[in-house]
Design brief:
Elements: H1 3-24, E1 30-31, E2 38-39, E3 42-43, H2 44-59, H3 69-78, H4 81-123, E4 128-129, H5 132-137, H6 142-188, H7 193-217, E5 218-220, H8 231-236, E6 241-243, H9 248-281, H10 288-292, H11 316-319, H12 321-328, E7 331-336, H13 343-351, H14 354-364, E8 368-375, H15 382-385, H16 387-401, H17 406-409, H18 411-416, H19 431-442, E9 449-456, H20 465-475, E10 481-487, H21 491-497, E11 504-506, H22 512-524, H23 536-550, H24 554-569, H25 574-583, H26 588-598, H27 604-616, H28 623-629, H29 638-641, H30 649-667, E12 671-674, E13 677-680, H31 683-689, H32 692-702, H33 708-727, H34 731-742, H35 745-751, H36 753-769, H37 786-794, H38 797-806, H39 818-822, H40 830-841, H41 854-863, H42 869-876, H43 879-885, E14 894-895, E15 913-914, H44 916-926, H45 934-944, H46 953-972, H47 977-993, H48 998-1001, H49 1005-1011, H50 1014-1025, H51 1048-1051
Parallel strand pairs: 7-10, 7-11, 8-9, 9-10
Antiparallel strand pairs: 1-2, 3-4, 5-6, 12-13, 14-15
Helix pairs in contact: 1-2, 1-4, 1-6, 1-9, 2-4, 4-6, 6-7, 6-9, 7-9, 12-14, 16-19, 20-21, 22-23, 22-24, 23-25, 24-25, 27-32, 27-33, 28-30, 28-33, 33-34, 33-35, 33-36, 35-36, 38-40, 41-44, 43-45, 44-46, 45-47, 46-49, 47-50, 49-50
Length: 1062
């Protein structure tokens, strides 16, 4: 039992002893529990009730203060096992004594209960006494009363021995927990310092209070009457001291202190939950791009935050725009510049400069300033270039600075957060949920915070740039947030941020002096730059020429500087250096071609393969991967044939250094190694290599036998073998590695099905040979199904097709549903969709009895998510129809669990146990883009309501309830004619299908008249009132035109009618 639980038991004992001592004392007073005043007349009924409560508390099994699962998990995750064992031994010793003492006190309490009951019988209806002790003496003899007093003294003396040791153990243990939690918060950069300090201060104060209270109860049997200050002194002095009577103040202090200890434990649990929540937002590559961006070169960019009073070229006003915006303005600020002009370096410089924070604090005033950053990187992971990655970065930075707001802006997810030191196994943050949380945070009434966001490389965002600009402008309309963004000067950004009212700067126009400083420094670093044979004046002329030709592009200066330094190393004369400079193209793409042409022809094939591998990579690969790829030159089948050997650390370092030198030589510096990863020199290099001309060139040079996806898959297979066999790591630790490798599997199978299939089959054997059944990370997967589950989750549909043709049972498992496994990824790829179709075609049961029926899971992941991604995929691929075609039940009621639907729609529909058709209709309203797929939606709805399907009145009633709420939302958004036309067709289809229940349908008429224009509303109402006139919409299933089809003019606000076909 924990120290706090033992202290709780000790508190119960102390309160009983104090009450009993007062009750049996000569004075005959007990304190009123509410006022604390002495009661001269004793009520036997109250005494009996109080004793009865004490008896129950003393006999009940002690409940740990940390009985909830979260507190236990904190102890397991953050405690030190060795010291925790020692602590448990000490605590258990005291606990055992306390339990024995509680048992003795309970026996005494039962005796007093019996006495009280007898006194009640004698006292009659009054039940009043002036002295309990006097009354007690009428029942007990003097010896027995004296024995009672001695027992109370002995118990009080015994209880005093246990308080301080338990307090010391608990505070010491809690402080150790706090240290570990503080360390974790520092890793996550959560602003928890003040909370940790407050908890530590509270613990020390409680310890001081109890340390002052308990020893005062104990008095030495010596002349000096010295107090006992520590638990050790108490234990050593056992038998040489007496105790004084406990006072009301003693009891209150002890109970209050123990209660505060419990509150402290609750605070610790909250801190641990906040850490777990923020881990779910964090992602491995979040800081990759930031770390790779070079620091601003010395004496450059200083003007942006400290513009000098005197500026040349009349640029002073432009250079001070950012500083003015930071201090005084809201909205957006746009940093624009050519490729390679230093935008990312500038953004990193600004976002982390002290002057930036000071200026923004002036803007924030009395409110707390919170700064968030995100650096897009198109050559990185999906999270580095996606909207979801942006929102997760921003929300992470926001909430790590104000974690106390987490329950307010993410209530449902906060309630579901489990304490853990690892991120959740399934990443299910949707774009809509993230955006909703950000909007909720910045719109808190009287928000205590103001937010400034820095977003670099908006042009590297892998999505719709126009919609992105609109969204950022909408967010920046709030007075609580403003945003500084950088991008290349593309038209979409000029239109959004280039207007006169938007503050902006064009970086390449403002950095001439910075370019000059950078060029001078780059060349001056070379020892031969100041050689006597190089005339100073002509060298300065070269610097001026570089500055002029650069046109604000630092990358060009970097490349030119490298070439000129090579010339200096080779002893070039001033004329040689000038000719070299004149020969270098000023256009970056031409410069990259120049670099490639300068590579030794002997290396061209290897260069092409390295560049193809880098440009094809889903994310930056480690240098070790490129070293592994070199084995392919010796043996095409090295991934399976090469022995796995353990190498010493120094040998590995040497091998990687040699590989790095080869990459530099073969790629002319276009690839660089940063923190163990191989990266492009600049984003513009990747853009250049992705052009059709360069893509064709690289494939030609690499040779027809080189297949880039297959080559990359080989790297992962060999690495997987090495890491599993060398380090004996659990499969859970290698799972992310292998999942990254599976991203190349589909394309590898397309390039060479025989070789790629052999590689994947070999990995299956590795899984089968590894005792993964005991791996905690795979406890939710059967040991014989782990490999199959990884294939299904990764969406490797080509492999699934091959294996199902070989054996229809390949993906069958007694304990697993392959359909459910294929749908577990939060966002489905086209590969996942094809796998779902194949499994259904091969006989997978959509109603299978598993932890959740596949049909129910499918509906939840399509109709009950905050993202319409899966819903749209399912519509476009006819998955709703496929499920129904292969036996999914139309009449089963499903609870999809929709706790936060209202947060992203005005429809107050929370699911509950409803029909699949009802969930589908709700999703049509909930997802704002559903009207873009009218044919697919009508198709699916026809399958839900196909002929022969019986719908009872209650079933139709629940669907109509959802329709009413959806139509109410349409009334609010009546300016969207496309949605109106779409839902007019949906209503018309349902009226036709359910015309036999015309009386039920009439409840829709008021909502229809409210939502649609008059003509449309009248037409639909007439169909309900006159069922015989109702007819289905035209679709590919209804080729004949119906006389009562709704016209486009009726379904939109336009006054001029023109018929359209559904």
């Amino acid at each position: 039992m924990e120290a706090l639980a033992a202290l709780g038991l000790a508190s119960n004992i102390v309160q009983f002893l104090e009450f009993t001592w007062r009750l049996t004392s000569t004075v005959g007073e007990i304190r009123n529990s509410s006022s604390g005043a002495a009661e001269r007349t004793l009520d036997l009924n109250k005494i009996y009730g109080k004793l009865n409560t004490f008896c129950s508390n003393l006999l009940a099994p002690p409940k740990p203060a940390t009985s909830n699962d979260e507190a236990k998990r904190v102890q397991v995750l953050f405690s030190n096992p060795e010291s925790d064992l020692q602590r448990q031994i000490i605590v258990q010793s005291h606990t055992k004594d306390l339990q024995a003492l509680a048992s003795d006190c309970a026996a005494l309490c039962q005796q007093l209960l019996a006495v009280t009951k007898t006194l009640q019988a004698k006292a009659g209806s009054k039940h009043k006494l002036s002295s309990f002790k006097t009354a007690l003496k009428t029942l007990w003899n003097e010896r027995k009363v004296g024995d009672l007093e001695e027992r109370l003294k002995r118990y009080q003396k015994a209880i005093a021995l246990h308080f301080l040791p338990l307090i010391e153990e608990h505070t010491s243990y809690t402080n150790n927990l706090l240290q570990r939690l503080r360390y974790e918060s520092s890793l996550l950069r959560i602003e928890h310092s003040s909370q940790f300090d407050q908890i530590s201060q509270r613990l020390n104060e409680i310890k001081r209070n109890l340390s002052a209270t308990v020893p005062q109860i104990i008095v030495r049997d010596s002349k000096d009457q010295a107090s006992l200050d520590t638990a050790t002194e108490l234990l050593e002095a056992e038998g040489s001291y007496t105790t004084r009577n406990l006072t009301k103040e003693d009891i209150d202090n002890i109970v209050h202190s123990i209660s505060n200890l419990s509150i402290g434990d609750h605070d610790i649990v909250t801190l641990a939950r906040e850490q777990a929540f923020l881990r779910s937002l964090d992602f491995t590559s979040r800081r990759y791009r930031y770390d790779d961006i070079p620091e601003a070169y010395k004496q450059t960019f200083g003007w942006v935050l400290d513009p000098p009073k005197q500026q040349d070229e009349g640029l002073g006003e432009h250079r001070s725009l950012l500083l003015q915006w930071l201090r005084h303005s809201n909205g957006t600020f746009w940093v624009s510049g050519k490729a390679g002009s230093g935008k990312s370096t500038l953004m990193k410089y600004i976002a982390n400069h002290d002057e930036t924070r000071k200026s923004l604090e002036a803007w924030a005033g009395t409110k707390k300033l919170i700064i968030a950053e995100h650096y897009f990187w198109n050559a990185g992971t999906m999270m580095q270039k996606s909207q979801r990655g942006l929102y997760r970065s921003l929300l992470y930075d926001f909430l790590r600075a104000c974690p106390e707001q987490i329950p307010r802006v993410c209530s449902a997810r906060w309630a579901a957060t489990k304490i853990s030191l690892n991120p959740p196994p399934i990443d299910n943050w949707s774009v809509e949920e993230l955006l909703s949380a950000i909007q909720s945070l910045i719109r808190i009434p009287d928000s205590p915070s103001k937010f400034c966001v820095f977003i670099d490389g908006v042009d590297e965002y892998d999505g719709d740039h126009f919609e992105f600009c609109q969204l950022m402008q909408e967010l920046s309309c709030s007075p609580a947030i403003k945003c500084c963004m950088s991008s290349r000067p593309w038209n979409v950004f000029k239109d959004a941020f280039g207007a006169d009212q938007t503050p902006r700067l064009y970086l390449h126009q403002l950095t001439r002096q910075d370019i000059l400083v950078y060029a001078q420094s780059r060349l001056a670093e070379h020892p031969r730059w100041s050689a006597a044979y190089l005339p100073k004046k002509q060298m300065e002329s070269i610097i001026d020429t570089i500055t002029e030709k650069a046109q604000g592009v630092f990358l060009w200066v970097h490349l030119v500087g490298k070439s000129l330094r090579d010339g200096l190393t080779d002893g070039d004369t001033i004329r040689d250096l000038q000719r070299r400079l004149d020969s270098l193209p000023t256009d970056l793409e031409l410069f990259f071609k120049h670099i490639i042409n300068q590579v030794d022809g002997l290396y061209h094939k290897k260069m092409a393969r390295l560049l193809l591998t880098a440009v094809n990579a889903r994310q930056s690969l480690d240098l070790e991967f490129y070293q592994t790829q070199e084995y392919e030159d010796e043996d095409d089948d090295y991934a399976l044939n090469r022995p796995v050997e353990k190498s010493a650390m120094d040998e590995r370092v040497w091998a990687q250094e040699a590989c790095q030198r080869r990459i530099n030589a073969r790629c002319g510096g276009l690839l660089e190694i940063r923190k163990g990863r191989v990266e492009f020199l600049h984003r513009s290099v990747r853009d250049f290599l992705l052009t059709r001309e360069m893509n064709d060139y690289l494939h030609l040079e690499s040779g027809p036998e080189f297949k880039v996806n297959l080559s990359t898959l080989k790297i992962y297979v060999y690495s997987f073998r090495c890491w599993v066999q060398n380090s004996h790591m659990a499969l859970a630790e290698d799972r992310d590695l292998w999942r990254n490798g599976l991203a190349y599997a589909n394309e590898a199978l397309e390039e060479d099905v025989e070789v790629a299939l052999a590689l994947l089959d070999a990995v299956e054997d590795f899984y089968d040979q590894t005792p993964a059944g005991m791996d905690s990370a795979f406890l939710d997967v059967s040991p014989d199904f782990i490999f199959q589950s990884e294939i299904l989750r990764a969406g490797v549909d080509r492999y699934v097709t091959i294996k199902l043709k070989e054996s229809a049972d390949f993906f069958q498992s007694i304990f697993e549903s392959p359909l459910c496994t294929a749908m577990e990824e939060p966002l489905w790829s086209q590969g996942h969709v094809r796998i779902i179709k194949q499994l259904l075609e091969s006989g997978a049961d959509p109603n299978a009895d598993s932890w959740e029926a596949p049909w129910a899971l499918f509906l939840r992941l399509t109709c009950a998510q905050k993202s319409d991604h899966n819903f749209t995929k399912a519509l476009q691929s006819s998955l709703f129809s496929d499920f129904l075609k292969y036996g999914a039940k139309r009449d089963i009621k499903l609870d999809l669990g929709l706790p936060e639907r209202v947060s992203f729609s005005t429809i107050n529909y929370k699911g509950g146990y409803s029909l699949p058709c009802t969930h589908f209709i709700a999703a049509l309203f909930l997802y704002k883009k559903s009207h873009r797929f009218p044919g697919e939606c009508i198709h699916a709805l026809e399958d839900f309501c196909c002929e022969g399907t019986e719908h009872s009145k209650p079933q139709i009633t629940e669907a109509l309830h959802v329709l009413q709420q959806g139509l109410a939302e349409l009334g609010v958004n009546a300016s969207e004619p496309g949605r109106l036309r779409f839902f007019a067709r949906i209503i018309q289809k349902l009226i036709f299908k359910w015309q036999q229940e015309a009386s039920e349908l009439r409840v829709l008429i008021p909502s229809i008249l409210e939502a649609f224009p008059a003509a449309t509303g009248a037409t639909l109402s007439d169909m309900i009132n006159n069922p015989g006139k109702a007819s289905p919409c035209r679709s590919h299933r209804s080729p004949m035109k119906r006389p009562h089809d709704i016209t486009e003019s009726e379904a939109s606000p336009s006054k001029k009618p023109s018929r359209f076909e559904c």
